[in-house]
Design goal:
The structure holds two protein chains of two kinds. By secondary structure, chain A is mostly helical. Chain A has helices spanning about 1-20, 20-50, 50-55, 55-90. Chain B is about 75% helix and about 0% strand. The chains are: A mainly alpha, B mainly alpha.
């Protein structure tokens, strides 16, 4: 996975220069979309052929929902604290 | 919203072909996903590097604003850790990896699938889509009761694009830059933090 991160850094450096060409960036956006479609399709295939995942899809979904509720509650609570302490008072 | 429906359709199509066993042989015999991920990350990097606007936003910022994405990371980590204590099948590390998608469901689910397996990858996909949809639907309420940063916190990585319009509408234009900034920082950090959380040697 370190390889993947290094590739992203290489991309950022290349993008710094490639940003000068709007057409290249337009193509880049299209390619990103398709790479994501292909990978999500493959994830679908992987899940579809994996009996264990299919059988527990409802429990996976429930856990996902509960984790999201926790993530949102935690984030919003932190946001409330940061807002009261650092943003709100400055406006008064 | 349209983007997530298209992405979910591709996932669903793969799912149906997988379940009904109607796949062409070459798809079952070779695993392209690692190579596709390499290509994707390089392209995502190009997109980040070329985005002059984002770099300008980051440069014009004072230190205080870093608290916003940091708050999303800390708040999410605490929230999912507490939830995971009630989920016997889920370790804290797994819960934190799912949370570290910060709403960026496409990349986080792909990453987690590669590093940890399909079960957690699907959980990340669903959880982070729910995060985006909840932000789109509930930002008016969040902002009303929990302050003007609430929508930005809830949106996480999506605060730079898909949920930016609704956040700007309810928190005001003053918060658009903060929203963009927080979303950009989190988007860049999603693969880094997930790798950090799931990397076995750490």
């Amino acid at each position: 996975m370190i390889t993947v991160l290094l590739l992203m850094v290489a991309g950022i450096l290349a993008g710094w220069w490639l940003g000068k060409f709007p057409l290249v960036m337009k193509i880049n956006d299209k390619l990103i979309s398709w790479a994501i479609y292909v990978l999500l399709f493959l994830l679908g295939v992987g899940v579809g052929t994996n009996k264990m995942v299919i059988q527990s899809l409802d429990s996976i979904g429930l856990q996902a929902l509960l984790l999201t509720i926790g993530a949102l509650a935690g984030s919003i609570a932190m946001g409330w604290i940061i807002y009261r302490a650092f943003f709100h008072l400055n406006n008064n | 919203m349209k983007g997530s429906i298209i992405i979910l359709s591709f996932f669903a199509l793969g799912l149906i072909l997988g379940v009904t066993d109607t796949l062409p042989d070459f798809l079952r015999e070779t695993d392209f996903s690692m190579y596709a991920l390499y290509i994707l990350m390089f392209l995502v990097g190009i997109g980040i590097g070329a985005d002059r606007k984002s770099w300008k936003v980051i440069r014009t910022i004072n230190v205080k604003i870093f608290l916003v994405p940091l708050g999303v990371m800390v708040g999410t980590a605490i929230g999912v850790t507490i939830v995971s204590l009630f989920l016997p099948n889920l370790t804290i590390r797994e819960a934190m990896a799912v949370g570290a998608g910060y709403g960026y469901y496409s990349l986080s689910s792909i990453f987690i699938t590669q590093m940890h397996g399909e079960t957690l990858g699907v959980m990340a996909l669903l959880s982070n889509i729910i995060r985006e949809v909840a932000t789109l639907l509930l930002t008016p309420l969040f902002v009303k009761y929990f302050g003007k940063l609430a929508g930005i916190m809830s949106g996480g990585a999506t605060a730079m694009d898909t949920t930016l319009p609704i956040i700007t509408r309810y928190s005001g234009k003053d918060y658009a830059i903060i929203s963009l900034f927080s979303g950009i920082v989190l988007t860049i950090l999603v693969p880094v933090i997930i790798t950090f959380i799931l990397h076995t040697s750490l």
